[in-house]
């Protein structure tokens, strides 16, 4: 199996997508055609014989090509930039007075974009109270991040499960997440709420006093 190339970045950063070919020092970009495509159909950036030949409004002012290793630089990246890309390189050879493009490489690379979530916000509302215990409705929410997160809870070092809901305008829009939980509180309890996404995590703790 071919090892799939992956690039990662956070919204607003500069990210480089590696290409499958490096132009030797004895040659220049003028001997090549280079196509960077997204989802196979959309041309992000293209060069032929050293000249830029593509026009893509979404990418035009945010992309650069390294003329030696053909890395595609995108800055600043957006959530919509995530997905599969392809670097296609053709070497232009002169054969019997005509220029023949020979494909040198054609390789995919997947870009994963992360947007940071807000620090989780915890609220606790007492629904009913007695001498022995309090019935408390707990809520934890975080917003504005990507991709869809996991939300978890720990009560006095024991894992607990949120009743979670996620809201997003589309699969490529930021997510808001909220977890709710009803708790029978009989003692002082430390609650930690964590939101995890793409290897990153944000967490907040709150002491629930009885």
TrEMBL record:
Membrane disposition: Single-pass type I membrane protein
Keyword annotations for this protein?
Cell membrane, Disulfide bond, Glycoprotein, Immunoglobulin domain, Membrane, Receptor, Signal, Transmembrane, Transmembrane helix
Q: Where is the Ig-like domain?
A: 12-100, 120-209
Question: Where can this protein be found?
Answer: Cell membrane
Q: Name one GO cellular component term.
A: external side of plasma membrane
* InterPro entries for the chain: CD80_C2-set, Ig-like_dom, Ig-like_dom_sf, Ig-like_fold, Ig_V-set, T-cell_Activation_Regulation
Q: Which organism is it from?
A: Crypturellus undulatus
Task: List the Pfam families hit by this protein, alphabetically.
Answer: C2-set_2, V-set
Q: Which gene encodes it?
A: Cd80
Q: What is its main location?
A: membrane
Biological process (GO) annotations held by this record are:
cell surface receptor signaling pathway; cellular response to lipopolysaccharide; immune response; negative regulation of T cell proliferation; positive regulation of T cell proliferation; T cell costimulation
UniProt protein name: CD80 protein
Which PANTHER family does the record cross-reference, listed alphabetically? T-LYMPHOCYTE ACTIVATION ANTIGEN, T-LYMPHOCYTE ACTIVATION ANTIGEN CD80
């Amino acid at each position: 199996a071919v090892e799939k190339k992956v690039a990662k970045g956070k919204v607003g950063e500069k990210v480089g997508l590696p290409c499958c070919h490096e132009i030797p020092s004895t040659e220049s970009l003028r001997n090549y055609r280079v196509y960077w495509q997204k989802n196979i159909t959309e041309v992000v950036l293209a060069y032929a014989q050293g000249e830029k030949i593509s026009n893509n409004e979404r990418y035009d002012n945010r992309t650069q090509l390294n003329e030696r290793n053909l890395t595609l630089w995108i800055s600043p990246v957006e959530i919509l930039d995530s997905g599969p890309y392809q670097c296609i390189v053709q070497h232009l050879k002169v054969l019997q007075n005509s220029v023949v493009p020979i494909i040198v490489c054609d390789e995919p690379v997947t870009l994963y974009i992360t947007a940071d979530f807000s620090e989780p916000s915890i609220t606790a509302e007492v629904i009913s109270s007695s001498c022995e215990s309090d019935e408390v409705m707990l809520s934890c929410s975080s917003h504005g991040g990507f991709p869809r997160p996991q939300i978890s809870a720990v009560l006095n070092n024991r894992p607990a499960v949120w009743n979670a809901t996620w809201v997003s305008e589309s699969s490529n829009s930021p997510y808001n997440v909220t977890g709710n939980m009803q708790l029978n509180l009989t003692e002082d309890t430390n609650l930690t709420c964590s939101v995890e996404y793409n290897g990153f995590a944000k967490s907040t703790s709150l002491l629930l006093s009885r």
